[in-house]
Design a protein that fits this description.
Elements lengths: L4 E4 L7 H8 L5 E3 L10 H14 L5 E4 L1 E3 L2 E2 L11 H7 L2 H18 L3 E2 L24 H18 L2 E2 L25 H6 L2 H10 L3 E3 L18 H11 L5 E3 L6 H4 L4 H11 L4 E2 L9 H15 L5 H17 L14 H15 L1 E4 L10 E4 L2 H10 L4 E4 L6 H13 L3 E5 L6 H9 L5 E5 L4 H5 L6 E3 L5 H11 L22
Parallel strand pairs: 1-2, 1-10, 2-3, 3-6, 6-7, 8-9, 12-13, 12-14, 14-15, 15-16
Antiparallel strand pairs: 4-5, 11-16
Length: 500
């Protein structure tokens, strides 16, 4: 039964607690988090993975969230690629596939064999607080094409990936880490939008999927998809014909934890049709909750209330994929061949992604004023343009900070304003909208929706995230070293959706 469990642990060394989970509970896999202290250096990570695998009777899934952009756990010594939305803006499926192959190759050389990626949610809601630039855009065909490209790249690298989050998290306005989102689209709309990328991946041969903690009544359930047999067994398996491995999103996320008990949720997820129960390092829980869930399921199996036949099918799927992906085989050493090529690819994608959302970009003044919530951008600008002035603001600047920024903007000849999720930070939006528009160049440092929220700013660039390669590429455009040639991956119809 332990093969159903993919668990998190604490610390950077092979501890007695981790040994117990592997030796006594026979867990199916481990997930690595920086916030759990699992990641310090790459040699330490590789050594820890090797020690864990050496103790396992059945080779372990070694999993991580390494999407690129804002969701990466490894940040030092590996190639950190731009966000999914930046990849789509860059406009090359071949480079997208090469990116996944590069990420997979680097992960595999450290001992990882499972990456919780790619995100194939269609981000149709500009107020989505958790998907946003993690998605390839708002068009289901575009999301499908790029999702397939990344899936192919991961397969080529020998990494199992989990397209996520079935049946779709793109139209939500709530973070499922914090609460339970609900999507009330009619069935026909779900089939043409949310379900389309998953259906294409199933047809192509995807071997694993991750579920979403989202309620979709049109699919026949009042429970979140992860816990709904109507969605997992009904839609995913029976109607869409998926025969691979179904993994849950973390069962300790707020959408589940605040509505159901964790052990009870593990039972419901299994009953719904999940093969792998994922437990993440979410706030408010310790690894002990995983033992409680294990004990609860064991009691239910022994009492005959859970199906042993279903358990056998799940374990068969797990073991089949573990054999197929060569778990337990020696890993190539890190760094893999081609690491510099991977980094060059990340820079190229970032450079190709920078998008002029509107207006005509003027030359950069010798002494611009930059107002930014991202300090790294200020550091990069001052290195390239020593006369530049930088005023760092928090996401929600105080009235005094707004006043200082406004006075600086009145004195400056040119003002660069970095925006980051202004729809969630009204004080930031108020400040940016109050600056003299004839001087301002807007810089959407996260989602491009900021440009729609601030129509009074006549010139707006988008870089789709604050990873160093994206900020450096943005600066190159401002300096006139490269053109802004990205394509906006979200529909212009969203410009009218900022009435909130």
């Amino acid at each position: 039964m332990g093969q159903l469990f993919l668990v998190y642990f604490e610390g950077a060394e092979f501890s007695s607690a981790l040994e117990e989970m592997i030796r006594d509970y026979h867990v199916g896999g481990l997930i690595f988090y920086s916030i759990a202290g699992n990641i310090q250096t790459l040699p330490q990570v590789a050594q820890l993975i090797a020690a864990a695998q050496a103790q396992a009777l059945v080779p372990l899934w070694i999993a991580i969230d390494q999407e690129g952009g804002p969701v990466v756990r490894l940040t030092e010594g590996v190639t950190v690629f731009p966000s999914a939305m930046a990849v789509a803006a860059a406009g090359s499926l071949a480079k997208a596939e090469a990116m996944a192959r590069a990420v997979g190759t680097e992960l595999k050389s450290l001992g990882f064999n499972l990456n919780f990626a790619p995100v194939v949610d269609v981000n149709s809601n500009p107020h989505n607080p958790i998907i946003g630039i993690r998605a390839f855009g708002s068009d289901p065909k575009q999301v499908t094409d790029y999702g397939l490209a990344l899936w192919r790249g991961y397969r080529q690298a020998g990494i199992l990936c989990t397209p996520k989050h079935f049946p779709g998290h793109g139209d939500t306005d709530m973070d499922s880490h914090l609460g339970l989102p609900r999507v009330d689209r009619p069935l026909e709309a779900l089939q043409t939008m949310e379900l389309r990328p998953f259906q294409a991946l199933i047809r192509a041969g995807a071997e694993a999927m991750m579920t979403a903690h989202v309620v979709m009544p049109a699919l026949g359930s009042v429970r979140p998809a992860t816990l709904a047999p109507e969605v997992v067994s009904g839609w995913l398996r029976q109607k869409l014909g998926f025969k691979g491995l179904v993994l849950t999103d973390s069962l300790t996320m707020g959408a589940i934890a605040r509505t159901y008990g964790i052990p009870e949720a593990a039972e419901l997820a299994f009953r719904a049709g999940a093969d792998v129960l994922v437990f993440g390092a979410d706030p408010g829980f310790t690894p002990a909750i995983q033992k409680e869930a294990y004990a609860h399921l064991l009691r239910e199996f022994r009492a005959g209330r859970l199906s042993v036949e279903q358990l056998d099918r799940s374990v068969e799927r797990i073991l089949t994929l573990k054999r197929r992906y060569g778990l337990g085989s020696p890993c190539p050493p890190f760094p893999p061949a081609g690491l510099e090529n991977h980094r060059a690819l990340a820079r190229q994608i970032a450079q190709d992604s920078i998008t002029l959302v509107r207006g005509s970009l003027p030359p950069l003044a010798p002494d611009p004023l930059l107002i930014t919530p991202v300090p790294l951008l200020g550091e990069l600008l001052q290195k390239a343009c020593p006369a530049a002035q930088v005023f760092s603001i928090p996401l929600d600047p105080t009235p005094e900070q707004q006043r200082i920024a406004q006075e600086g903007a009145q004195r400056a000849a040119q003002v660069l304003v970095g925006s980051l999720e202004t729809w969630r930070h009204p004080a930031q939006r108020l400040l940016l909208g109050s600056l003299p528009p004839e001087k301002v160049i807007g810089l959407a440092l996260g989602s491009p929706y900021d440009a729609f929220a601030l129509p009074q700013i006549p010139v707006y660039l988008a870089c789709y995230g604050t990873t160093p390669v994206s900020l450096q590429a943005l600066l190159q455009v401002l300096l006139g070293q490269i053109p802004a040639q990205g394509r906006l991956p979200v529909g212009s119809h969203l410009e009218g959706s900022w009435s909130r």
